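Raw record, unedited: Flavin-dependent monooxygenase
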Amino acid sequence: MTSPRIAVVGAGLGGLTLARVLQVHGLPVTVYEREPSPDARSQGGTLDMHAGSGQTALEKAGLLDRFRALARPEGQERRIVDETGAMLRHEEPADGDESMPEIDRGQLRGLLIDSLAEGTVRWGRPVDAVTGEGRVLFPDGTGEDFDLVVGADGAWSRVRPSLSKEVPSYTGVTFVETGFDEARHPEQGRLVGNGSFSAYGPNKALLAQRSSNGRIRVYVAFRGPQDLPVPEVLALFDGWAESLRDLLRHVDDEFVTRSLFALPVGHSWEHTPGITLLGDAAHLMPPLGVGANLAMLEGAELADALAAAADIDEAVRAYESAMLPRAARWARFTTDGLAALFSPEGVKGALRLFDSMK
């Protein structure tokens, strides 16, 4: 039987996982990515890979051992304080606990890229749209036909319009990101600890998270207009403990604004032969530690389904029937979670959310 022609649009974690597991099954795949190279931009901070989702995907990809060699189980430490700096919660992982170890997003993406056959990813090859039953259109006016095109191209997917008219909308919460090197600012590094550090007030938070190599990323987050100038954002934290404000004073990076957008909870589409979605392209939701894990699990599950089924359409239907309701449940959880984290209750709402997750 002729091997199916499969295209993945987007070389993010979900699309790369799909490609890797397809190749594990001996199926060919082409990944189109608009960025010109793997290191064209910073890949952001750190991720916690969950047992049962992200780690399951890595196991299917044959990469779990290599992941564990890079991961930081100690990064599961969590510190929560109020705006005075008073410690309200300090959780440390038990010895041997690898249920949600941390790894830099860039390290994880590099691990997946390096696992693929040479030439799998077509760097610098943006996709304009997908039409019909799997025709990919490029900006230069050319196109290619595939048996299946998978949109793994994130929040502003070029594949999604072939299936759905929905577009992401602003959640009401904006993050402003910066960071520092612990070697230059050791006192702030000690405050953050080995994992994540968070301080909550009414409708706002100050968050920090350790990456590898002594890098710590800092985020100020607030509920309000997404175009608020950075000086006005920082002024929201006037009156907070000096130790907390030092996380904003002693930084090495510029401040970058990242407003949070999401698709409607329960976003779905009418099944269309030759096209499907995964990850943020399918179910963009607030970033509460779920998105990357879901995208990778979906990539692995879709690859398994394609390898096992005699018919591509049968495989995609089975994948969508499991993925869409699960994504809807997580979208509801993360949407409600964002409301709890950024509410007039401040840290009380945050603690209640974290207690519900145990």
